[in-house]
Input
Amino acid sequence: MKQLPAQSKILFKAKRYMDDILMIYAKNRDWDHRKFIREFEESTCYHKPLKLEDGRQDTFLETTFEWREGVGFRHWLKNDNLPGEPPKIWRYKDYRSHAPYTQKRALLTMMMKKVHKMASDREALTISAYTKLFEFMQLGYPPGLLKGVCNFMFATTREGGWMDARDAILA
Output
């Protein structure tokens, strides 16, 4: 950073959390962003044995995001388990496990609160909630429980995306 000219520093933003880096940069005809990225990738920002590795273009930590012209950044909870695809990661217990019902309901409610907190708008919330609910449905969680948690989330947040997600998952 010390070696960069002030003009370059206004054309990008970077944040580091532990060993993860998020960088957003401008494509500007007066600035060689390709050279900047190439030099960053060759830098020594990590001490051995750590090294810079490519991440997904649209994800930082547990957040997936996208840029929409005229709108700005939209974001939602990252989920690699998408409806219609084989599951990639299992993080939760199957509903048929021996855990108490109250624990299962609390887990589901906590995850929906996380979905809510990480969504930037109603559309992002609806899609993210549907995807997470579908993941729980694949684990045998009954439709009535999924519906009840959506109703609870709507009642406590007044965000209509919860009704959209509930109706989509029960369709």
